[in-house]
UniProtKB/TrEMBL annotation:
Lineage: Eukaryota, Viridiplantae, Streptophyta, Embryophyta, Tracheophyta
Organism: Platanthera zijinensis
CDD domains in the cross-refs: Gnk2-like
Protein name: Cysteine-rich repeat secretory protein 60
PANTHER family (UniProt xref): ANTIFUNGAL PROTEIN GINKBILOBIN-2-LIKE, PLASMODESMATA-LOCATED PROTEIN 7
Entry's family note: Belongs to the cysteine-rich repeat secretory protein family. Plasmodesmata-located proteins (PDLD) subfamily.
Domain Gnk2-homologous residue range list: 30-134, 140-239
InterPro entries: Cell2Cell_Antifungal, GNK2, GNK2_sf
Main localization of the protein described in the UniProt heading: other
Gene3D superfamilies documented for this protein: Gnk2 domain, C-X8-C-X2-C motif
The keyword Cytoplasm is annotated on this UniProt entry: no
Amino acid sequence: MSPATPPSLLPLLLLLLLLPSAPSAGEDLAAVVYSTCSGEKYNSNSPYKLNLDSLLSSLSAAAGFSLYSKFVSADSPSATPISGLFQCTGDLSIPDCSSCVRDAVLRLPSLCSSATAASLQLRGCFLRYGKGAFFGLPDTNLRYKTCSTGGNSGGGDFLAAREAAFAAVSAAPVTGSSYRVATAGPVQAGAQCTGDLSLRDCDGCVGAAASQVKQSCGGAASGEAYLGTCYIWYSGGGAVPYNPGRGKEESSYDNKLDESNKPQVFLGDGNSRKIEANYNYPII
């Protein structure tokens, strides 16, 4: 197809599987993704410091029982209450979550020394604290994003599969969980929000993160974006290696869709069922 020819819209049924994805062997769950620290500082002997120490201790203890928890610390009545939460990746075990949160608490003094508010995202968990109440408030400000240097040529099969996977993780699963994983063709995607967000706000945050990735990563084989209260990632294991000199007309797939060989659509929620749905995406 000539690059000047408008892309045609063809119905494409993709296999969507909402499946748990265990961390890869040897993955460093304590690796720092990003940190943000307020410019305002507290004194080391202040009531604020006492409240913060109490809050972080409560969060560390709670990570031994749950993948998400939130607290408000007001042990010292003369200090401003401090809100805090942690959120572990939804596929972590409780011991791994507990270890990750402990690592985050231990790293905060060096990364955000005496900051009255801070956020720390590790590969396996997220930790945030600050003055007043921020629970339930979506934050779609970009914190971090990255794209692989290799990838697909930007052609239809890969981009349509990524779009379908993003659509799946941008909508609340039937389980109501904020942790979402989907597979469409060669592309796997995952997303998660902090547990204090409503499902509606989580959907909106993940959708905003998906837009960041699509704008920045083009046809890269993998990418991720972290916003204030959510993140999204994708990886195309079957993607064609990126070749910047390759034109769209030389794409490695056929623009024609074999109507007799369409994969069926499934949403896996423990009881997979057939969903009659068409995803109309451009096949370039």
